[in-house]
Amino acid sequence: MLCKYLLLPFFLLITGCLFGQQNELPQKKIYTATRIEDKPKIDGILDDEIWKDIPEAGNFVMYEPGDSKPSRSTHPSQVKIAYTDEAIYVAAYLYDNEPSKIRREFAQRDNLPTADYFFFDLNTYNDGENQTRFYVTAAGTLADAKMKRDNEDFAFNVVWEARVSLNENGWFVEMEIPYSALRFPGGEEQLWSMQLGRHISHLNETYVWNYIDKSIGESTHYNGILEGIENIDAPVRLSFYPYVSGEVDYIDGETTTAFNAGMDLKYGINDAFTLDATLIPDFGQTAYDEVELNLGPFEQTFGENRAFFTEGTELFTKGDLFYSRRIGDTPLGFNNAQDARLKNEEIVENPETTNLLNALKISGRTKSGLGIGFFNAITERQKARYYNKTTGEQRELVTEPLANYNIFVLDQQFDQKSSVSLINTNVIREGEFRDANVSGFLFDVYNRGSSFNFSGEAKMSRINYAESNKTGFASQLAFARTKGKFRYGISHEFANKTYDINDLGLNFINNYSNFNWETSYRIFEPHGIFNEYNIQFYGDHQRRYDPDIALTNNFGSSFFGITRERFAFGGNVNYSTPFKDFFEPRRNNSFIEYPENAAAEAWISSDYRKRIAIDSRLGYNKYLGSPHGELNFSFSPRFRVSNRFMLIYSFEFMEENERESFVALLPKNVIFGTRDMKSIENSLQGSYNFTNRQALNLSFRNFWSSANFAYDSFSRLQDNGELVSYNYKVDEANDPDANFNVWNLDLSYQWRFAPGSEMILLYRNSIFNVDKQSELAYFESVENLFKQPARHNLSLRIVYYLDYSSINSII
């Protein structure tokens, strides 16, 4: 009943705003591309005859820090665009009256240092939503990203080429973007949209070709029009990425070797849709996961380091139903393998990961704006092996069956900024393991003037067990003002107690009905010492859905600001009422009530253009009327030794005192203990760039954490969420203390020896230790860590890009 009365004015407000605001966006510039017969030489030196008679796109205006001011007379920008039957060509003349101040830091692909750069945004469907951004820095570094509004996904990679040159007048860019790198609708005449931009680092200024009103909507709504491209045909978009890899692994006196070969491929099914497949995948050189000591009720999550699961997946991530680390994750029965051991048996083998056999994805968008995505992956059956020491017999237990993971998406875009989507994820496992199916309907709608946004989701999950089924439901509604200096938004989130998407997605909690609000004030023109600042106030009311119980209320405020000298700082304060936590006890319908708490955090980030810059953060959280408190501190200096050499060191410290934490689940009681916890993390990132295609990279991390429980303060949880003293006996088997230490070091040489092709030589060193010696200090724990066997791994991987058109021309 409460929701009914709250949501009625919510929808009335939305209806009035969406249909009452009909102001149009500013008029867009138009540029007509020129067809040429012979392509220019891509060398960055713009002396080809073809560029002389091609009209220019100029009159750039400021995007940051000001708004719409004409570009400086000392720094004009001119861009020319041509095309052939095979590719788009771009020439950018980026003049500078002080060329010695042009910043030219070296970096590898998709890494943008604090350098001058030029970008070319291309939206081949002119839909205001999905476009590709191509970056080139003044040092010649290339980067490409898929853009969804103002979010850039650098996991996207296509094969294209660009070169730069520098002289006394400024710097210059020459780009070649083959049609094989693009998707576009069929037809004799193309109508695309584009944006051109230039960042001048030493002035801290960014200019764009088509004016962007930062006070309304999203930047992708402000592309200009690119016309004149006619009678081009999508090429046969077929490319192969065959690879070979070999590795030598040494640990504790044992040496093993391995050799792998396989291939990824991309195939353009038609002018708009592409098939990506990985056959016999090899993920041996993916970055290490930043593992930590996890004593909480939820699993630890990690970022995706496998390129196949990050490139071109924007359709599949809609609704947050796809957590790609589920594919190839720890087998379902890994933790149960120990309990399944019979008398006199020992576990000979229990795989910790599941092998991926193959995977493919098909995605694209029709001329009418309908995006279609299909994803499928198959993982191998995994087994634990046991050996009976008495009889000599061996047996196997399936811990992960053969499994198929599937996603299907329909995403209809309209009005160049809005969309509705349908998505379905499905997991089918061999035998009597659980299967899962999740369906979602999503909408994201702007009004005509982009001043208001209304979005929502409705998702249904179904888990199929051998004996029964379980169906769940979740929803979300949000409304936001997206215009002007003063903005606001409200939202509601709901999930019933059987909502579960964790077979292919990720959700930590369910059974909630939460209300959220926020309001903010920001500037779009420099004011006083600030180039930009944003002040925000927010709050939420959290409830349990069944039974209907209030859990907590949160109120807070945050500040973000950047000065004219590019010094950024900010922070936040937050207050929470007492919180009923239904997850820490690990027992259904049980909760512990934590007292009210107040938290504050502040951070700074200095100017990255200087040789030495610093990021630092300090936070403290205090539970009022309780000794429980938490301190967090981080400090990260970065050193730009030269334009080729960069080092970044990071130190993080966390200390938590006297927290009431879960210890054990007994038949009749949930046991809690008073825990102190400390963590220290040291990391170092370094890179030396021989060129923009060759680099030596170092990545190091050491993480230590200890949890120490007071042995005279155990308690049991009561039905009202309070704790009473309990005489809990601790022995070696149930000791809750923990001392956790991990060391990872990666040293790699990377060489991009041809477009789309690379060689990586990687040395990896890792050590891991976990025990009960929580009384050890940091350096004592590190000393213990080095008593453990270290793993040394040396691997070489070579990937070569083959394009069908190149192969066909040779044949």
From TrEMBL:
Cross-referenced PROSITE patterns: PROKAR_LIPOPROTEIN
InterPro entries the record matches: DUF5916 (IPR045670)
Keywords assigned: Signal
CDD domains: CBM9_like_2
Pfam families: DUF5916
Stretch forming the signal peptide: 1-20
Superkingdom as given in the UniProt entry: Bacteria
Domain DUF5916 span(s) in chain numbering: 235-810
Name of the protein described by the UniProt record: DUF5916 domain-containing protein
